[in-house]
Amino acid sequence: MSSNSGIQIPSRLPLLLTHEGVLLPGSTMRISVETARNMHLVKNRLLKGTSLKSTIIGVIPNTRDPEYDTEDLPTLHSIGTAGLAVQVVGSNWPKPHYTLLITGLCRFRVAQLLKEGPFPVAEVEQLDKLEQYTSPEEMSEAAGPDGELGELSQRFYQAAVQLVGMLDMSVPVVAKLRRLLDSLPRETLPDVLASMIHTSNNEKLQVLDAVSLEERFKKTLPLLTRQIEGLKLLQKTRKPRLDDDKRVKAFACFPAITFSLDEEGDDEDGDDTAVLERKVKGANMPEPALRVCLKELKRLKKMPQSMPEYALTRNYLDLMVELPWSKSTTDCLDIHAARVLLDSDHYAMEKLKRRVLEYLAVRQLKSTLKGPILCFVGPPGVGKTSVGRSIARTLGREFHRIALGGVCDQSDIRGHRRTYVGSMPGRIINGLKTVGVNNPVFLLDEVDKLGKSLQGDPASALLEVLDPEQNHSFTDHYLNVAFDLSQVLFIATANSTATIPPALLDRMEVLQVQGYTQEEKVEIAHRHLIPHQLEQHGLTPQQLQIPQDTTQDIISKYTREAGVRSLERKIGAICRAVAVKVAEGHNVTKSEATEQRVVRRSVCVLRAEEPDGVSADMAAPPDMPIVIDHIALKDILGPHVFEMEVSERLTLPGVAVGLAWTPLGGEIMFVEASRMEGEGQLTLTGQLGDVMKESAHLAMSWLRSNAKTYQLTNLVGGSDPLEGTDIHLHFPAGAVTKDGPSAGVTMVTVLASLFSGRLVRSDVAMTGEITLRGLVLPVGGIKDKVLAAHRAGVKRVIIPKRNEKDLEEIPANVRKELDFVTASNLDEVLNAAFDGGFPGMSNPLTLPHIVSKL
C-alpha cells in the first residue's frame, strides 16, 4: 500500500520494546515499562514532550525471552506499530515502573536504526493509511476481475457478525462491538478482531507482518472461524438455564475478549458482581450510602479486573456490605441481674456501678437513649479496662478495645482517603466491622497518651466521635459517607486528665477511679486474684492456700501501689514456686521419699508428724495443702521491699512528711532541710519544678517575716533566719521530677523545725498550698494522698480546711484509723505538726479543728 495520502506519522520514532504482547492498529493495550531503555523513553519523551507528535512512539514486539535480557539492544523486528500514548501512570511499588495505555495507529517498517541510547530511535516507513480508507466497492474494483479481496472482505464481515450474534447483546461491550462492525471500514476489521479474540502472540505477530490487506484477511479469517467453532462447542457442552437457553455472557477488555457461561446453581462463583449487588441492596444501608454503593458498583461492572482500581473498588464495596448499618443487639435491662453481675466481677467501685445502673434504669424508661460518653480516670491497675468489659457483659453487648497510647496520626481515627495507596478505614469503622453490630461497647484505652505529629492531631479527630450531638453522622475518610455512632457506648480510660485537651475532656463524663485500701486489696485478692492465678498455674485450693495475714504482708511489705497489678504478680510468683514443689512431689519415687521425709518449713509444706510405727512409704507424697506463712513468703519473694520508715527518718529537726499525687496514685514524700554558715542563700535540690521552687521561696519569706513571733533564730542567734546562714532544702528520690503547689505547708513545717530545733511528730503527714500571708489553700487528689498516708502507717493527716468535703470519699475504715486536721492558715498547721504546739502561739496547746476518727 502507498502512503502518499492521509495523515503521516513522524519519520523518526522512539522505539518501545515490549514482551507483553503485540499491539495491532486500532486496538488499545496496557504496557508495563520496567527496563532501563523504556524508562528513559517515558521520562525523556512522553513526560517532557509538549506536542502531539511527542506522544507518538513506535511499539516493537520483542521476541527475546525477558529472562535473558541484557544491556545490548536485541535484534529489532522489522515491522512495528505506531501508537499514541493516551495515559502514563507511575508507581514506586514494588519497584519504580510506569504503565502506558497506548492506542495503535498504523504499521511501519524500520528503515534504519539511528541511535541505541539512552533509548532506540529509528527512521521508519509508514505502511498503513490513517484515513481515506477505501469503501468495499472500491476494494472490489481494486482486486481485479476475480474480486478476491472483496470476497475475502465480505466473508470476514459475515463471520464477525455471526460471532457477535452468538453473544448476549445486553452486555454493553457486545452491543458496541456490533455497531462498530457496521461503522468501521472493512480493512480495519482484521486488526480490531484479531486483537479481541483468543489468539497467541505468534498469531498476532503474523497478522502484524501481513502488510498486504489480502494477506491480512487470509491470516485472520481462520482465527475468527476457530473462535466461532469453539463457542458452538461450548454452548453444546454447557447446560442452559431456564428462560436463557442461548445466553452467553462476554466480558470484554482490550486486548483480549473472554467468554464465560453461568453454570446452573453457581450464582456466587459465576457472577460476583450480581452477588455483590444483592448484598448491597440487602445491607439495609441509609439512602446516601446506598446511592454511593450503587454508583461504585456500576463503575465496577465496566472496569476490567486487570486495572488496579478494580481491587480498590471491590474492597470498598465489601467493607460497605460488612458494616452493621442496622444490626444491633438487645440490651439486658434487668437491674437486679446487672447489680449481681457487677458485684461478682468487681469489689468496691461503687460510683462506677451506680452509673451503669442509672443508665439501665433510664434505658427502661426511654428506649432511644443515646450512648453516654464516659471517662474513667485513675491510677494503673485499679480495673478501669476490666470494668468496661464487665459493663459490656452486663448490657449483653459486644465489646471492642481500641488502644490509643502513642497514636499520633489522625488517620487512625478517621481513616485514609481512598486516593492513597494502601488506604484503609480508621479504627472506629474497623471496630464496628469486627463486632458486627452498631451498638457495641467501645473502650478507648489510654486516651491521655495520644500524641501529635505532622500527620495531624488524633485528639482533635476524636472530638466528633465523642460528641453526642455530632457522632450520629460520623464520616470516615475511607467510607466518605456518614455512619451513625450514637448507639455506641464509648468508655475512655486515662491515668490523668492533665494531658487530655480541654475540648475533648469537655465532651466526656469523668468518673474518678481511686486506689484501693489495704482491706479492699485483701478482699480483691481472695475473691479474684488468687483463684485466677491458681487456675493459670494449674493449681487447686487443695494444693495451695494463702491466708489473709500473708496477703496483708504482701500488700504492705512487697507492694506499694494504688492498684493491684504488683499484688497479682507477687501471687503469681508464689504460685510458680509452689508449682515446682507440687511437680517434684508428683515425680518422687518411694525410695526417694524415704530420703526426703524431713521437709524444711521454709519450703512452705506443713505436714503432720509421723506417728510411731508408720512407715516412710505411707508418708509420701503429702496430702496436706501447701500453706504460705511469713517465713515461706520471705523465702519466695525475698527480703521486704518496703518498710515503715516514717518514724526512723524523723529523728532530727528539719525533716517532715508531705503527701503527693502522681498518675500512679498517692505517695508520701520526705522533705529535708539543713543549714550552715554562709551568705543567706537558699539551695533547692531533688529535680523540682518551677511551682515547687516558688513554694520554697514563699515558705522562706513567710518564716522570715514571722521569725520573731515564732522565736526563730539563725546560727548566731539573730532574728533573721537567713542572716549569715545558707539553707539547703532537699526532696529525696532525686531522679524523679517533682512539681506542684501542694508541698507548701510541708516546706514551712520543715524550715520551722530546722530553725527552732524541734522535731516534727513522726506520725504526721500534710498537704496544702500556701500564700505569702500564711493562708492554706485547697489542693487536689485528697483521697489518693490519704490512702498513701494510711499505707505508710501515718496516724494524723493535715489538709486544707476547704478540702474537708473530700473526706466523704474516703472509706469508713480508713477514716476511723486516722485523725484529720483541717487547717485554714499556717499557724494551725504548725500547731498540729509539733507535740505540744509550736512556740509563740497564743494558745499552743489548742489544736485547730480536728475531724477525729470520722
From TrEMBL:
<dbReference type="Pfam" id="PF22667">
    <property type="entry name" value="Lon_lid"/>
</dbReference>
<dbReference type="InterPro" id="IPR014721">
    <property type="entry name" value="Ribsml_uS5_D2-typ_fold_subgr"/>
</dbReference>
<feature type="domain" description="Lon proteolytic">
    <location>
        <begin position="650"/>
        <end position="836"/>
    </location>
</feature>
<dbReference type="InterPro" id="IPR003593">
    <property type="entry name" value="AAA+_ATPase"/>
</dbReference>
<dbReference type="InterPro" id="IPR020568">
    <property type="entry name" value="Ribosomal_Su5_D2-typ_SF"/>
</dbReference>
<dbReference type="InterPro" id="IPR008268">
    <property type="entry name" value="Peptidase_S16_AS"/>
</dbReference>
<feature type="short sequence motif" description="Microbody targeting signal">
    <location>
        <begin position="852"/>
        <end position="854"/>
    </location>
</feature>
<dbReference type="GO" id="GO:0004252">
    <property type="term" value="F:serine-type endopeptidase activity"/>
</dbReference>
<dbReference type="Pfam" id="PF05362">
    <property type="entry name" value="Lon_C"/>
</dbReference>
<comment type="function">
    <text>ATP-dependent serine protease that mediates the selective degradation of misfolded and unassembled polypeptides in the peroxisomal matrix. Necessary for type 2 peroxisome targeting signal (PTS2)-containing protein processing and facilitates peroxisome matrix protein import.</text>
</comment>
<dbReference type="GO" id="GO:0006515">
    <property type="term" value="P:protein quality control for misfolded or incompletely synthesized proteins"/>
</dbReference>
<dbReference type="Pfam" id="PF02190">
    <property type="entry name" value="LON_substr_bdg"/>
</dbReference>
<keyword id="KW-0576">Peroxisome</keyword>
<dbReference type="GO" id="GO:0004176">
    <property type="term" value="F:ATP-dependent peptidase activity"/>
</dbReference>
<keyword id="KW-0378">Hydrolase</keyword>
<comment type="similarity">
    <text>Belongs to the peptidase S16 family.</text>
</comment>
<dbReference type="InterPro" id="IPR008269">
    <property type="entry name" value="Lon_proteolytic"/>
</dbReference>
<dbReference type="GO" id="GO:0005782">
    <property type="term" value="C:peroxisomal matrix"/>
</dbReference>
<feature type="domain" description="Lon N-terminal">
    <location>
        <begin position="13"/>
        <end position="228"/>
    </location>
</feature>
<keyword id="KW-0067">ATP-binding</keyword>
<feature type="active site">
    <location>
        <position position="742"/>
    </location>
</feature>
<feature type="active site">
    <location>
        <position position="785"/>
    </location>
</feature>
<dbReference type="InterPro" id="IPR027417">
    <property type="entry name" value="P-loop_NTPase"/>
</dbReference>
<keyword id="KW-0645">Protease</keyword>
<keyword id="KW-0547">Nucleotide-binding</keyword>
<dbReference type="InterPro" id="IPR004815">
    <property type="entry name" value="Lon_bac/euk-typ"/>
</dbReference>
<dbReference type="InterPro" id="IPR027065">
    <property type="entry name" value="Lon_Prtase"/>
</dbReference>
<dbReference type="InterPro" id="IPR054594">
    <property type="entry name" value="Lon_lid"/>
</dbReference>
<dbReference type="Pfam" id="PF00004">
    <property type="entry name" value="AAA"/>
</dbReference>
<dbReference type="GO" id="GO:0005524">
    <property type="term" value="F:ATP binding"/>
</dbReference>
<dbReference type="InterPro" id="IPR015947">
    <property type="entry name" value="PUA-like_sf"/>
</dbReference>
<protein>
    <recommendedName>
        <fullName>Lon protease homolog 2, peroxisomal</fullName>
        <ecNumber>3.4.21.-</ecNumber>
    </recommendedName>
</protein>
<dbReference type="InterPro" id="IPR027501">
    <property type="entry name" value="Lonp2_euk"/>
</dbReference>
<keyword id="KW-0720">Serine protease</keyword>
<dbReference type="GO" id="GO:0016485">
    <property type="term" value="P:protein processing"/>
</dbReference>
<dbReference type="InterPro" id="IPR003111">
    <property type="entry name" value="Lon_prtase_N"/>
</dbReference>
<dbReference type="GO" id="GO:0016558">
    <property type="term" value="P:protein import into peroxisome matrix"/>
</dbReference>
<dbReference type="GO" id="GO:0016887">
    <property type="term" value="F:ATP hydrolysis activity"/>
</dbReference>
<dbReference type="InterPro" id="IPR046336">
    <property type="entry name" value="Lon_prtase_N_sf"/>
</dbReference>
<feature type="binding site">
    <location>
        <begin position="378"/>
        <end position="385"/>
    </location>
    <ligand>
        <name>ATP</name>
    </ligand>
</feature>
<dbReference type="InterPro" id="IPR003959">
    <property type="entry name" value="ATPase_AAA_core"/>
</dbReference>
